[in-house]
Amino acid sequence: MSIRPILIHPDPRLKKRCAPVAEITPEIGKLAEDMLETMYDAPGVGLAAPQVGVLQRLFVMDCVKEEGAEPRPMVLINPEIVRTSDETNTYEEGCLSIPEQYGEVTRPERVVMRWMGLDGKPQEEEFDGLWATCAQHELDHLNGKLFIDHLGAIKRNMITRKMAKLKREKARG
Ligand code: NI
């Protein structure tokens, strides 16, 4: 396993609609392992393939937060939303591609998702709480959408300017 560099917004690769995974190859298995390691190292609760520069439809997540609880690493390939609840939830979201910036996003409180596991088998599950927010945030990434696209233009532009400045400073070293 290895930690992959995470792309920082603004980056054109974070704005693309990703292509479905056609086949579960050893490369996809390696990518999923690396993404989990990269996510835990960051640390974060979710990471989508485009965030490591791979424009394919998969993401990883683990929203277990309780101290000492067993981790639950999940790999979702070609995920789709089956159903969403009418009730909504507002969470302060962040993103590993937009470090240290946060904003309140309202999304359905519960979501049923269907996806393919690394074993190629279809899976379906209802997520709620932080899991539901995270799953929807990561699915957005596969459609080239970031959490700041749910915010007002003023806040979005402010965050984008900050990130562009941060990247210029990093590039200068
Ligand atoms: Ni994100």
Structure description:
With 173 residues, the protein is α+β, with helices and mostly antiparallel strands. It has one domain (12-172): Peptide deformylase (Peptide Deformylase), CATH 3.90.45.10. The chain contains three helices and seven strands. The chain has helices at residues 26-41, 129-142, 153-172, and strands at residues 46-48, 58-61, 74-84, 88-95, 98-108, 110-116, 122-128. It has a five-stranded antiparallel sheet. β6 and β7 form a beta hairpin. It is globular, with a radius of gyration of 16 Å. The model has no long low-confidence stretch (mean pLDDT 97). It binds nickel (II) ion. Nickel (II) ion binds next to α2.
Assign the structural class, choosing from mainly alpha, mainly beta, alpha/beta, alpha+beta, or little secondary structure: alpha+beta
CATH superfamily: Peptide deformylase
* Small-molecule binders: nickel (II) ion
CATH class: Alpha Beta
Strand count: 7
CA(first)-CA(last) distance: 28 Å
Brief description of this entry?
This protein is α+β, with helices and mostly antiparallel strands. It has helices at residues 26-41, 129-142, 153-172; strands at 46-48, 58-61, 74-84, 88-95, 98-108, 110-116, 122-128. It has a single domain (12-172), classed as Peptide deformylase (Peptide Deformylase, Alpha-Beta Complex), CATH 3.90.45.
Descriptors for this entry?
binds nickel (II) ion; two-stranded antiparallel sheet; 173 residues; Peptide Deformylase; five-stranded antiparallel β-sheet; alpha+beta
